[in-house]
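Journal club side-thread
Mid-discussion, someone asked how the predicted structure for our own chain would compare to the paper's figures. Pasting it here so we can look after the session.
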Amino acid sequence: ARALFNLATAEAELSNFEGAWDALDTAEAIFQEVGADIWLAAIHLWRATIALQRGDYSGAYDEATAALISVGQDDHHLFYPDILLRQGQALLHTGDLAQAAVVGRLALHRAVRSRQVWERYSAHVLLGQVTESQNNLMRAQRHYYAASATVERMQRGLTLTLQPGFLQDKNEALRGLIRLHLKAGKTDSAFEVLEQTKSQVFLSYLTSREHLRWDLTHEHARALYEELEQLREEHQQYLNLSQKNHILYEEHPVPAPEHMRHEIALREKRMRTITEQLYLFGHDRGSQQHLKLPSLADIQSSLPEATLLIEYYNDGKHLWVFALDRDKLEVYPLYTPLEEVNSRLVQLQFNLSCALKVGPTSSVIRNLTRQTQQIAQRLHHALLAPLVQRLPNYRRLIVVPYGELHYLPFHILYNGREYLIERHEVVVSPVAGLITRASPQRPGGALVLAYSSYGNLPKTLVEAQLVHRWLGGPVYCDAAARRDTLQTEPCQVLHIAAHGEFRIDQPDLAYIQLADGQLYTDDLIQHDLSYELIVLSACETGRVNVAGGEELIGLGRGCLYAGAGALVASLWRVHDTTSLQIMEAFYQGLLNGASKASAIRESQIALLAATPDLHPVFWGPFQLIGNAEPLSATGSLNT
């Protein structure tokens, strides 16, 4: 019966409600037979949850009432606050606001008394929704703020790996607050709530990077790290075999594909478990002082002249865009349905992958380019239509995406005549508050790593020598391009030219391939990477997965958390020849004193100008994240 109950909860989490309901029915019969009333309460509670998700609000109320009967007079029962919450949510949806408020207050009281933090959050959200429906907006705002404060206190003590999962389903309070502020015409307040919620985790890590470092002074932590290294070595061996890279393993028979997939999955699971344990050996995040987050005025005063910051927000149904310069903030609703925008994003990604497969000289590439322009033009209209009259006034656009928009290469948006990058410098930032932070200033020179993957990427070695010639500093190629080279004191630029891979299924396992193994996000965070600029000239190094609370998971996050002032990374697999051309023009621009934003723009539009029909997948793989200003000491660079 317990197995059936666990199956039901798993099916419900996957939104397979019919399967979940059937499993609960079967489990209920067994529990009734053995008189396990506590499990009957759990079954009714889950039925109420499923009924709410299906929109059966009267059924949800009935199931929650049955659960209350099962627990009897025991108001200390673990399920009691949850049962009350389901009742209250059902009453809210059926319009019985007065009774929903009574039940919500009782749920909050029980949650506080029993110290059930998640239930406390949910009770405040419920009471916020009820009082908002009663048009008691001040009281609703207080409840939403209380819910947000509960989440903020809880997430402050979580490790890096636990943050995304914890925040996954806790955005109702944020949406409630922003909705109230927008209704009241308080654009400034809506922006600050959005930005401070997003910035809380991101900027707290940037200001106290030592809390992310694994403390290997503990004997158990050292043993875990040694096990992790062994697992990674085995993991790479199986990956090489599965990808038919047998150059190092010719003497071993190749296992069956099913066996290799099983062995890879086992090691990945254990690797994730160990990294979580290692973060627990880090410094106590609970000891951190409260972080003062940037205000709207702080952000505005940090914006350069002729710069427009564009921050998106998704309320679950519609998109909004905040447009901010040094003088004013405006907000606009976007009228293209969210589902249509997401569909266009999928179409764009498919088109880009097709263009990569066929190559720049294919007979079908012109058709693919036209299709890309059509999709990019629709996205341009959907996302920038309210701003088209303002855009010509700005040289630089700083884009702060939200949700699925983190997957969009904004610089290739198309207005029917030009790409966005042809008219503006385009910089991406995970949070607007990042612009208030000063970039590190380092002595001139570059640390250059290049790994050609047994000669499969020969242009990486050429690129490394060019960067070394331009900037000076140490260069490590092929066998010398090892992970421990990152232990050196940061200089001005870190340039890594190697194969990289993003895992959409396991984004925390994105990596860059170096001579002694795979360099993961967790590895990057363990180093001081406070370079003025990090360039990851590798495949898919700029791709991220968006988790709860706008937590971004990927290699770029690792670089920023490790202290990088700015990052240039690729959004998809890079074409060898065009990548080299872009990098050459980019560094030449930096040497001439151009800003990072101007240098990356000029490098891409120069390639586009030379071949006007070139597909964006070949000229636009790189984006700039973070500080857009020139390097601090270009005069000391090689010429």
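Post-session note: The mean pLDDT is 87.
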